[in-house]
Amino acid sequence: MMDTILTQDHGMCFTTAKLSENMEMTPEGFLLCRNVPVARTGSLFYDASEVPVAPGVTGDVEVVREDEDLFNPATMASLNGKDVTLRHPDMFISAANWRDVSRGTVLDPRRGTGADSDLLFVDILVKDSECIRKVRHDGLRQISLGYRAGYLQLAPGKGRQRNIIVNHVALVEQGRCGPRCAVQDEMAENGKMEKQEIMDAEKRGMEAGLLAAVKALFSGKATRDEGAAPEKKDSDEVAALKKRIAELEAQVKDKKTKDDEEEEEKKKKETADANRSSTMDAAAVSELLSTAGIIAPGYKPTADALASPEAMKRDILAKAYTADAQKSGAAGFIELFAGKEPKFDSMDAATLDAAFIGAGGMMKAANNGAFAAGLMGANKTTATQDAAKTFAEKSKELWG
Fold first, then answer.
1. Is 297 helix (H, G, I), strand (E, B) or coil?
2. What is the rounded distance in angstroms from the CA atom of residue 82 to the CA atom of residue 39?
3. Strand ranges for the chain from DSSP E
4. Is there a contact between 129 and 162 (Cβ–Cβ < 8 Å)?
5. Is 133 left (phi over 0), alpha (psi -120 to 50) or beta?
6. How far apart are CA 244 and CA 11, in angstroms?
7. Per-residue pLDDT tens over the stretch 287-313
8. pLDDT in tens, 88-145
9. How high is the pLDDT of residue 193?
10. Mapped to the 3 state alphabet, what secondary structure does 93-161 carry?
11. Which of 2, 353, 53 is nearest to 179 (CA)?
12. Residue 387 is inside which H or E element, if any?
């Protein structure tokens, strides 16, 4: 079955298989990644050698990116149609080198809405088979922009980024924006797409492409009377099509065999992991409870939470984010890493770790009066708040 998939209300791209909520496949086997955040507003932190802004006493530079700069029409237009690369190339892309480094195309830049209004979104059409494999199976999902920009010095160690012109969009292991700026892959239907379903979707994509070729081949030819002898030139073409069909079937069969083997290995690993995680050792529980005592005082783990460290982290963060617990300040710290109204049950592992470690560290810093006073001076209340802010900024730089 061939569908014309609308990218929300922004543009149209013809695809033949939907692999997940945000990933689709074209008849050519290209991968369409929808709703990809590529940049955000707010503060970013750089080494003094990276930007033309005089550093402060720490040697670092805070660069502020305002709404009117990131969402400037010229900046957004500079994204459209630009090349997607596998990590950053050695030099900016031009007419002289794009064939060597381009792996896809950027489509439809637009500003996010609601809680995502600080993000700049695009769709990405990945055309290179190696790059598609790394995105889908190796987790190469985070985004880093290659661009030119102007900088305005606001104060020692602080500047504003302006006149941003994008050259390319790179897929990287770890971008400066962290997991907020990455290819999204929320699975369709009940939150999961089985391996067989994905393989079937890929097969449908190949079959759709072949069907289009057959229709094109026979379009415009006069209809022959029933029983009339076929034209000789058609037999060669049909033979070529049958050969191509056989090749495709062989590819699908070979892929199914390999996928079955991979699935079996995955099930064995998941079983082993489940056996290990079902009996968390006392040291792991104690370490997690130590952080829980800071961000969710009085926390008591449930039986489900004790199933694995990840489950316990989700449970602790959920308790820390409740209305009763918000007076402690932990909820605000959690939002710095996970955004407004975070969904702990479906949160990806990288964001989960960043929120748990970051919120715990910030609460500890905010509660430590001596630490705050040592950093910021005699005014303990203001110093504590400023120290927490400083810790948040550095934590977001490390963990996204």
1. coil
2. 15
3. 3-7, 11-15, 17-20, 23-25, 31-40, 42-47, 60-65, 83-86, 102-111, 119-126, 142-155, 158-172
4. no
5. alpha
6. 33
7. 888 888 888 888 888 888 888 888 888
8. 999 999 999 999 999 999 999 999 999 999 999 999 999 999 999 999 888 888 999 9
9. 42
10. CCCCCHHHHEEEEEEEEEECCHHHCCEEEEEEEECCHHHHHHHHHCCCCEEEEEEEEEEEEEECCEEEE
11. 353
12. helix 380-399
Token duo for residue 234: 């058609």
Least Cα distance to 309 among 270, 276, 266 occurs for: 276
- Between CA 193 and CA 23 the distance in angstroms is 12
Tokens of 313: 């982290």
More confident residue, 2 or 339: 339
Neighbour tally for 250: CB within 10 Å? 10
Q: Which two tokens stand for residue 338?
A: 């996970």
Higher pLDDT, 52 or 1: 52
Beta bridge partners of 110: 121
Would you mind telling me the total number of residues written for the chain in this entry?
400
C-beta neighbour count of 276 within 10 angstroms: 11
Taking the model in full, what pTM does it have?
Answer: 0.48
Transcribe 240-265 into DSSP letters.
HHHHHHHHHHHHHHHHHHHHHHHHHH
Structure tokens at 80: 């459209």
Query: Cα-Cα-Cα-Cα dihedral of 14, 18, 22, 26, to 10°?
Result: -40
Burial of 381 (0-12, 13-18, 19+ CB in 10 A): exposed
Return the amino acid letter for 12. Answer: M
Report d(CA 307, CA 129) in Å as an integer.
38
Note the pLDDT tens digit of each residue in 102-116: 999 999 999 999 999
- Answer for the pair 171, 133: CB distance below 8 angstroms, yes or no: no
